[in-house]
Structures are given as structure tokens and as C-alpha cells.
Amino acid sequence: MMRPLFSALWVIVLILLLGQPAGAQLLTRTYYTATGRTTANPDSAAYYTVVQRQGAGGSITTYKPGGQRLHQEQYSQLRSGQRQGFSTEWNPTTGRRVARYPYQRGKLHGVAQAWYPGGQRRWQLTYQQGQRQGSLRAWYPNGRALRTETYRAGLRTAGRCFTRAGRDTAWFAFERPAQFVGGDQALHTWLTRNLRYPAIDSRNQVEGNVRVRFVVDKRGRVQNPEIVKGISSSTDAEVLRLLSIMPAWQPAVVAGRAVAVPYELPVEFRIL
């Protein structure tokens, strides 16, 4: 299933406030350094996030220090991370919207769209309950068709690719996801070899999964790690340390071009 494909940053501090009325809104701003650590000094921040809570749901919006919007996720359940509504990305230089993904009960549902930084259409794809359904169309920046595809229940039933001049050309995949070099098993092996169980958590028998989001940039570098769901401050810090030394990945490719993409990873802490 295709996840949002362009550069995006997410936060990670989801605060539960006891005693708030069900309809009340709560805004929480958190500043982050370039390595994904929180900072109390806005001048040292590489970006900041605003969590807007309303009942169990709300939104998380990420901004550059100058106030330019980068990304926004809408949720029906903030604690569980269930998306509902649009996930939107903006180009920080032009302020233009560059991608929008519709979610229903945590699954992609509806028409997802992307635009070039100048505002031209880039691609459009329809989802139904998390699966591709109907047409996918993509365009070159000059407006000519790049490809057309048809899907049924997630399976491609037809498709064509075109040159910039509008001629048929050899088929090529629309996208390739970002991947740790060697695949999922290699990633698991790397995490197992490099993870250091915090002594205090080992003594206290603290176990569970830390969920972390980050961006794999166009060069495959891991950027902007953010804890989505933590266990303790020490396990969260260990996950951020792992991300800071993680080797480069194979970058994602969309329509033949390397792109930055968000990625979410669970890191298991288990006492054997």
C-alpha cells in the first residue's frame, strides 16, 4: 500500500490532559533539533510541531522555524495514531500544497493527489479502503501524460508509460519504496546487534515496542527521527541514538525519480 511519498516531518508528543471537557481544544507546541531531540530553546530548533487536540482526535502540524508549514496529519484517535481526514504536505519555499492523501478509519480512501512545486499536476490515484481502485494518472511537468494505469482491488489490470514527447515507452514501475539495504531481515539484524538495553529499564523489567517515525531522504539518509509511541525516556533516547548511527537506505523512487519519504519503525525492547 502506498504511503505518503514526499518529504514530511511528524511529531510525536501526544499529551493526554485529564479533566478537559470532551469538546475542548488543546494546542501544544514542541521544538525539535535536527536530530529529532526536543529542545526548550526555539533558536536551536530545526522544526517544531503543533498538536491540536479535540476530544480523542485532532491534528499534528509540522512547521519550519520561520512558520512555513511542512506537513499536517489529521486523526480520529491521537493515542492510537488512527488517521481520519487529509494528510497534507506543502513546499516550504513556495507555500504550495504538493501532496494530499485522504484517510478513513486509518486507511487510504478516496483520491490522493500530488503536484509539482510550481503547482502543475504530478499524479492522481484513487484508493478504496486502503487498496488502489480505479485509475492512476501521472504527468510530466510540461503537462504531458507520463503514465496511465487501472486497478481493481489493489491489482493493476492495465497500464501504459509515455515519453516526454507523448510516445509509448517501455514499462517502468510507478514507485519503489524506501528499503534498508538487504531488506527487512537485514534491518532486524542491524537493530539487534546495535541496540543497547538501558540498564535502568532492564532492572525494572521494562519491555515493549518504541514506535519511531523518520524521513528517508533522496540520498537514503535517515533524517528527523521522532518518537511516536515511547516506553520510557531512556528507551526513547536509545532509539534516537540508533537512528543517528543507522547506515543509508535505498531511497524511494516515484515515477523514475528518487524522493524523500516518511517511514515508521517499531523497535522492540524484550528481556530474554
Hey, roughly how much beta strand do the residues contain?
A: over 45%
CATH topology term of the domain at 174-272: Fusion Protein Consisting Of Minor Coat Protein, Glycine Rich Linker, Tola, And A His Tag, Chain: A, Domain 2
> What is the 3D form?
globular
| Percent in helix | 10-25%
* Mean pLDDT over all positions: 85
- Largest beta-sheet characterization: 15 strands, antiparallel
Distance between the termini: 34 Å
SSE string? EEEEEEEEEEEEEEEEHHEEHEEE
Pfam families: TonB_C (PF03544)
Organism: Hymenobacter endophyticus
Membrane topology: Single-pass membrane protein
Main location: membrane
What does this structure look like?
The chain is globular. Helix content is about 10%, strand content about 45%. Mean pLDDT is about 85; it is low at about 1-25. A hairpin with a 5-residue loop joins strand 12 (about 130-140) and strand 13 (about 145-150). The protein is mainly beta and about 270 residues long. The two termini are about 35 Å apart. The chain has a domain at about 175-270: Fusion Protein Consisting Of Minor Coat Protein, Glycine Rich Linker, Tola, And A His Tag, Chain: A, Domain 2, CATH 3.30.1150. The strands form three sheets. It has a 15-stranded antiparallel sheet that branches. Strands 16-19-20 form a three-stranded antiparallel sheet, with no helix packed on it. InterPro entries: TonB-dependent_transducer, TonB/TolA_C, TonB_C.
